[in-house]
Design brief:
Length: about 270
């Protein structure tokens, strides 16, 4: 304080010197007070996209999941894609068991505690089975379903009805029939298992999930969005939901834990 007193000698009045000493003391305290460190921004959860049935095969080349991955990465997400083994024609329970180690790999690679899942079509069923039965409820923050047949599709029922080799002998098809034992186990009394946030997008133009409303979960905790309810003139079908800009604007909200809105003009 003596230093400040000497520097204040030039003040002619006692009041002025006291004021000078007081200001100097404040400056000294300010110099000793540590400046709080700015907290580093929290990085969003990594996102895993689970493909739909056969989507990585030439039979459905229209589904280029790189479009969705690039959008996610442009928004700052670490994004990963997981194709269904065996084109997704096998038992969904076994497919989910194969998916579980991939989640652990992503968590280890990114250092994150949880992931967000986006499941297209059958991919959504794989993600939900993982959450409910394979420990995923503690590792998944948000789930987004794109045209996922949560309650089956009559298209699979027709395959059974007309004797197409018992749904072509494909377990996934048998499990996707409305009222199947698999869906009964998955949905139970509450189809929004755990503390995961569930959001689903569907299109009235879906010709694979019939009726399209079977793409919705029915428990109160789920957010269900029909694209044409928000954007009446928007044309997008089952495969296109994964590529659609308007749908992606809703995915952005879901992953950010915001109320879902849609940009009807997005491409």
């Amino acid at each position: 304080m003596a230093k400040h007193s000497r520097s204040c000698d030039r003040w002619s009045t006692q009041k002025g010197r006291k004021r000078c000493i007081f200001v100097g003391a404040l400056g000294l305290l300010a110099g000793l007070t540590p400046i709080p460190a700015t907290a580093a921004p929290t990085r969003p959860d990594p996102v895993i996209l689970i493909e739909g049935t056969g989507s990585s095969e030439p039979v459905v080349p229209a589904v280029d999941y790189n479009v969705l991955i690039e959008r996610l990465e442009a928004d700052g997400y670490q994004a990963f894609v997981w194709p269904l083994p065996g084109r997704g024609l096998g038992d969904i329970r076994e497919t989910s068991a194969a998916f579980a180690p991939f989640v652990d790999q992503v968590l280890a690679q990114t250092g994150a505690h949880r992931v967000d899942l986006i499941g297209h079509s059958q991919g959504g069923l794989v993600g939900r089975w993982y959450i409910k039965f394979l420990g995923g409820a503690t590792k998944v923050d948000s789930f987004v379903g794109l045209a996922t047949p949560h309650y089956g599709t009559k298209l699979a029922n027709l395959a059974m009805l007309y004797g197409l080799a018992d749904c072509l002998d494909y377990p996934f098809c048998q499990q996707a029939t409305t009222g199947s034992d698999f869906l009964g186990d998955l949905n139970g009394d509450d189809d929004t298992y755990g503390q995961v946030e569930y959001t689903n997008f569907a299109t009235r133009l879906d010709t694979i999930v019939i009726p399209y409303t079977n793409s919705f979960q029915r428990s109160p905790g789920a957010v269900n969005v029909t694209i044409q309810d928000r954007c009446p003139l928007h044309v997008v079908e089952h495969l296109g939901l994964a590529l659609d800009g308007t749908t992606y604007s809703g995915i952005q909200d879901a992953l950010a834990h915001r109320a879902v809105t849609l940009n009807c003009l997005a491409v």
